[in-house]
Write the C-alpha cells for this entry.
Amino acid sequence: MDPLKNCEAFLCGRSALCGHNYCSVHLKPEPDKHASRKATPVTSGVLDYFPDAIKAIAQCSLVGNEQHNPGTPLHWDRTKSQDEADALVRHLMDRGTVDDDGVRHSTKVAWRALALLQKELESL
C-alpha cells in the first residue's frame, strides 16, 4: 500500500510529487527559497540607500576593466590585483581625492570592500 494515498496533501493534489514544498504528513518542510530571497531587500536596503555610490562603483569597474583588460567585455579578472585589503587601505589613505584615472579613491575603497566581502562569502 502506498503511504501517500492516505496523506491529505496527496489527496488534495499538493504533495511533493506534484511540486508542493512539503507533505505535512510524510516529508520534512523544505526551506522556502523564494521567501528567503524576498526577505533580502537588495533594492530597498542597498540600491535605494546608495544610488550615486553604486553608480560610481559600476563606473570604477568599467575604468578598471579598461586598465587591466583593454578591449575586452566587462568582467572581473580575479588573477589581477588580488590584494583587496591592502589596496583598500592604500585608497583609504587617499580618500577625498581623485586618482589619476579620474576615479575617486573612496570609490575604489568601496569596490575593494565589495571584492573582499565577495571572496569571503564565497569561501564559506
The two ends are 44 Å apart (CA to CA). The chain has two domains: 3-39, 43-122. The mean pLDDT is 84. Residues 47 and 54 are 7 Å apart (CA to CA).
